[in-house]
Automatic annotation (TrEMBL):
Gene3D superfamilies attached to this UniProt entry: Tetratricopeptide repeat domain, Vaccinia Virus protein VP39
Signal peptide region: none
Protein name, as recorded: Tetratricopeptide (TPR) repeat protein
InterPro entries: Nucleotide-diphossugar_trans (IPR029044), SAM-dependent_MTases_sf (IPR029063), TPR-like_helical_dom_sf (IPR011990)
Length: 516
């Protein structure tokens, strides 16, 4: 067919627009141009690149106005074509299946000799095809290519990409280019974007850790300290770093809108984005890890997040702050979530850690209003109702807190351990002892391997003066020896502080005349 399959085209566009800059010859040869698909895909993006087309079927020249799409159009059979010059990149898009295997190999080797790179796009399934519009050259002569056969047949293939029924293969001419050049051109371009306010304490550490990024976009959302001056100073000291700073004014304020603006300022040429805070920083070698793990088709990476508390305690968990530049949008005014337009495919990066070291309270002034706004927009998001219940509880709005946490508990995918823990805390403050203990027991039931919440039960019973029950609970807690440094971690439940609590509880049990 004169029209090529769309499968693999986005991958080809991304690669070729970068690969051409590694070529000594700024030219492209499109073999079997058909309707001019590759000209339409690439010519506007590569000003100054010379495009030549070979199309054996003369009627296509006029039908698809090839003279307007290419600098030069040749009406030749590629099997007898003798290149008179060298090309940077040659396309064999839906071409080699129209000839025998032996002819395909001869054509490829001839074109590779006259090019720095050859891009093959070919069906890799059984795909018969007859003549089209009277064109006998549209017949598939060899209609059963497979990926394995392509790899075994054509030499010097340095990159491959499979998408649906199509395989894309890039060969390199070892006289002029190398596989390493292909790999370099295929590496992802990664941008970092962030909002900042009064972050003078962490800004230089942040910038030093991300300076390897291909682009850094920082948006000032109201800094009144020296953060902006320090950013500008860093930019002057590191002129090779692609750092851009903007002032962002947004009313009414929403975190999702602010992040979406920052994301929109990232160049469309970037493949990946990392959304950070200025109290965060990347570990050395982060870019090499991302490059090594990168593969077409994934939409983001899951990675480790380590939060360093003011007391130097380190909490660990998982996060997804690395995502494709295209197709993502932030949602919700606060506790915003990143959503992909299609099915998200997340790859784990077990060895990559992003560090966060908080140095100021980042809670927005209108936090309660933003949460109330969020639950109106997404009433089925349990986490937003949970956070709203926490805010109401801190403000001692008990009725509102109970309503919010009950709503969270009714929603799918809610975390029952977290829900029952907050229900316990609300009932404890309301001095509803039996209900509080019932909810705490339920929280323990849903997170049975954790010492912290059994320890919480022991201390609560101690405060109630129920010393024997408290001692039984502290002995149960002591049996759990695995420390997990996450959001549920409580240093009071470990080490000397735990021993002191145990001693205090046991002494009160003895005072009541019980033998331990």
């Amino acid at each position: 067919m004169p029209f090529s399959s769309t499968q693999g085209k986005a991958w080809i566009e991304r690669l070729v627009t970068r690969l051409i800059h590694h070529c000594k010859e700024n030219s492209i040869l499109d073999v079997g141009a058909g309707a001019g698909t590759y000209s339409e895909l690439l010519r506007s993006k590569l000003p100054g690149t010379h495009f030549t087309a070979i199309e054996i079927w003369q009627p296509y020249h006029e039908m698809y106005k090839l003279q307007q799409k290419y600098d030069l159009v040749l009406s030749e059979d590629v099997r007898t074509f003798e290149p008179a010059k060298r090309y940077g990149i040659t396309f064999c898009g839906d071409v080699l299946e129209h000839m025998t295997k032996e002819e395909a190999l001869q054509v490829y080797e001839k074109l590779l000799t006259a090019s720095e790179f050859v891009v093959i796009s070919i069906p890799i399934v059984h795909y018969p095809q007859e003549a089209y519009l009277g064109n006998p050259y549209e017949i598939h002569v060899k209609d059963d290519w497979t990926h394995e056969e392509v790899m075994a047949t054509f030499p010097h293939l340095g990159l491959t990409h499979r998408e649906g029924i199509m395989g894309v293969y890039v060969g390199y001419n070892p006289q002029f280019q190398s596989k390493a050049t292909l790999s370099k051109a295929n590496q992802p371009l990664t941008a970092v974007y962030a909002l900042y306010q009064n972050d003078q304490q962490g800004v230089r550490r942040f910038l030093q850790s991300v300076k390897e990024a291909d682009q850094i976009v920082l948006c000032d959302i109201g800094a009144t300290d020296q953060t902006t001056a320090l950013i500008d100073e860093f930019a002057r000291e590191h002129p090779a770093v692609h750092l851009q700073r903007y002032e962002l004014c947004l009313s009414p304020w929403r975190f999702d809108d602010a992040k979406n603006i920052a994301l929109s300022l990232v160049s469309p040429a970037m493949d990946l984005c990392i959304c950070l805070q200025l109290d965060e920083y990347m570990e050395p070698g982060w870019k090499e890890q991302i490059n090594a793990a990168w593969e077409s088709g994934i939409t983001g990476f899951a990675h480790r997040l380590k939060i360093i508390q003011p007391d130097a305690t380190e909490l660990e968990g998982w996060a997804q702050q690395i995502h494709l530049r295209k197709g993502h949008l932030w949602k919700l005014p606060v506790h915003e979530v990143l959503e992909y337009q299609d099915l998200a495919i997340i790859k784990e990066l077990n060895q990559l850690t992003i560090f966060r070291q908080p140095y100021r309270d980042t809670t927005p002034e209108n936090y309660e209003k933003l949460l109330e706004w969020s639950v109106k927009e997404r009433p089925n998001n349990w986490k937003t109702w949970y956070h709203l219940a926490q805010v109401y509880a801190r403000q001692r709005k008990w009725t509102e807190a109970q309503t919010a946490i009950d709503k969270a508990a009714s929603l799918p995918e809610m975390n029952p351990a977290a829900i029952y823990r907050l229900k316990y805390e609300i009932c404890r403050e309301l001095q509803q002892t039996d209900q509080a203990l019932a909810y705490l027991n339920l929280a323990i039931l849903h997170l049975p391997a954790r010492r912290e919440w059994i320890f919480e039960k022991a201390t609560y019973l101690f405060q109630l003066g129920r010393f024997r029950e408290a001692f039984s609970a502290i002995l149960e807690a002591e049996q759990h020896t695995a420390v997990k440094m996450d959001a549920f971690y409580n240093p009071e439940a470990w080490g000397d502080k735990f021993a002191q609590w145990k001693q205090q509880i046991s002494e009160n049990v003895k005072k009541e005349g019980f033998t331990l």
